[in-house]
């Protein structure tokens, strides 16, 4: 679909990942303002950060089905989603919350089914759908975590967007202290497990999980950029298609 | 699917429909306790009442697409959904909120697409999915209202449940001051537009809309019961399959 842009903002940008449910309000507000300036055609996905990851970990949700864990983890990430939607409204966007738990089924941790029709309708009507990392039902495990990164790659695979940008709390993929301007699958064995920092509690795989997700997406022909969303102005640059951070090139 | 029961509780039961966002807390609590006693296999749908209907009306949402109307109407019904989920948790159920806006697309006011897989997975795992009348994207009008009644008939058509019960604030379909124990499509022309009271603001068609929905469902072979959920004990009776109120018989 032409004209669509998918932007992910990591939970480590929006929250203090080490402290339960602590949003970084000033960052959320700044990012909302940057997004409001980005125009139409955008789908936003945000991570859970300390809303969700800590709950999921406490309930052992990844290892063991827990009805209370499903509800409490979901409600926690929805609280962050509410904050993001509120800030976007204040900044002049027309956000609409979209909750993966309502539309998605996993199979052993991977998206097996996700209804994205409503998201597309929203974008077509000038709304800004705001999805988030969430808990979702899992055909194998009962329930599991669907990360914002997995949502991004699923949406991007289906919609073939113009731009896929992943805003994180670091400059991109760091290897031996250096920012990699570009990563291809063939680089992965070279750089091994040293992929730079990933702060706080994360049940979804950190930078390695993110890169794996984006390399799989690249195999399907969709390029993406990992950039530093803590630096003002970077969202705008990423959404314009500028190379800023690490570029994961799609193989057409 | 055997063993599934679908219960709808009307917005006029859970809220004071004449006053903006006024939940009837003691009723919500009592109903939550009755539902918690009903065992597994249940899907709950609740109406919006004064959460949603009044917003939708104020924004003219049915006639005219409004980005702010979509968000504000949705957030309002989600506030009621939160209350219901909270009460159900307190009563010992394992509720999970399911938001139609995330999973459903309308076409000129009717459900064109709805992903119900997550709802089925929830029931299979012993959770209690809690859906609600909601705003949803509409391929023709931009956005529209999907009533709890329409959700019930859509789910029932797909799942062929054992029981479909619709708890309202009246005893059932009243004609000439008398409760009709049974209604078939052939009765509709006889009873005309006098179908008993429907209090407060309702953008989804009142008792006539409900009956039309259930007669369509009956045509597809699924029976349902309209009963008075304001009377304690009636939910249990309806879920046991007792004839209480007005029975709309499915033609096999």
Automatic annotation (TrEMBL), chains A, B:
It is an enzyme of class 2 (transferase). The keyword Acetylation does not apply. One of its GO terms (molecular function) is isopentenyl phosphate kinase activity. The keyword Kinase applies. Keywords: ATP-binding, Isoprene biosynthesis, Kinase, Nucleotide-binding, Transferase. Catalyzes the formation of isopentenyl diphosphate (IPP), the building block of all isoprenoids. This is Isopentenyl phosphate kinase. It comes from Candidatus Methanocrinis alkalitolerans.
